[in-house]
Amino acid sequence: MECCEVGIEAMNVYAGTACLDVRKLIDHRELDIARFNNLLMSEKTVALVSEDPVTFAVNAAKPILDALSEAEKNSIEMLITCTESGIDFGKSISTYVHDHLGLNKNCRVFEVKQACYSGTVGLHNAANFILSNTSPGAKALVIAVDLCRFMVLGEEDVNKKDWAFSEPSGGAGAVAMLISNKPEVFRLDVGASGYYSYEVMDTCRPQPDSEAGNADISLMSYLDCCEQTFLQYQQRVDGANYAHTFDYLAFHTPFGGMVKGAHRSLMRKFTQQPPAQIEADYHQRVTNGLTYCQRIGNIMGGALYLSLAGVIETGDFSTPRRIGCFAYGSGCCSEFYSGIVTEQGQARLKSLEIASHLESRYQLSIEEYERSLRQNKDVRFGTQDVIVECPITDKIQQQQLSPRLYLKRINNFHREYEFQ
């Protein structure tokens, strides 16, 4: 029997155990408050030394898997981790994730990297596997996970005044998506997709724990790709209209101001509406997608899906609604596609209580935050041996309602984890 429906059966966001008030950071760094206001940020997740891409990925996926029967869990035949925050040049984090989630060993596991586009690569690869129907009834697990670790080597680095605005917006998190032919949360419009790519040096990671690039070029590339991907979407979908086809829009979100600017640009080009109507449309169709992004920060490969989760969680789905999704990854690759969400899908996402998880995060002081920055070097890419000690994690564990995976040690490059 041919498979004709595909999409997200279940979805969860994990935003770590600790966060920081971004306004406090802006004040502490003495950064330009006008630029801060354009970020549209309130909090950011901070990855502690006991957390890495593996712990974020496992903790995002585990609630989804815990709700499955053993037969359903064993039907997961593909695990794709999507990240630019890998911990080894060869061994993918999917191997660790597969192990700690207790997945069936008859499973393909691999990792994809394409800057912030990685989560969309994973989603569409998984969807095509389901659509191929080569293994009827199979499911795929896609986890988009990224984190920003700002390295400091001494007191003089912590106190410097010229910190880039990537620090306030850089977050950490993971979005886990179970992909199947029962797309209860988000049903893809199969074939309704426009993509656009070219080589550009906007942002890159020339070293594992640092980022370089040109913010102005990145913004222009993002805006260009927004327009070009939608134009190709229009070619593939008869009658597609940016203003009327989509009830909501979800964007890759480095920070809220970039999304607002992109939406305004597209509305001007495709609708010629006056500024007041464009502003009203932004609040009606776009701001739901900032719900979680404003509290977690830029999680790169998972940023679009953090936006999508916000739309599904807070939108009106009393009748089925179509969501337009824009993915962008520096370098660059981009895509505009769409899908349908129903009231039942919203209820399924809400059952995982993402908002409650965000509220339960530990609020770091500036002193604790800067101490965590110093500890980042202990678990950086290439670390061979270390015992991980994190007093903040010990405090948080007493408040947790269920065990979470934490990094405990690195032994001859092998990372060892425990649920606590």
From TrEMBL:
Name listed for the protein in its UniProt record: Hydroxymethylglutaryl-CoA synthase family protein
Record-annotated Hydroxymethylglutaryl-coenzyme A synthase N-terminal domain positions: 5-181
InterPro entries, per database record: HMG_CoA_synt_C_dom (IPR013746), HMG_CoA_synth_N (IPR013528), Thiolase-like (IPR016039)
Keyword Transferase on entry: yes
Cited CDD domains: init_cond_enzymes
Family the entry assigns: Belongs to the thiolase-like superfamily. HMG-CoA synthase family.
Source species of the chain: Alkalimonas collagenimarina
Keywords, alphabetical: Transferase
Residues covered by the Hydroxymethylglutaryl-coenzyme A synthase C-terminal domain: 280-417
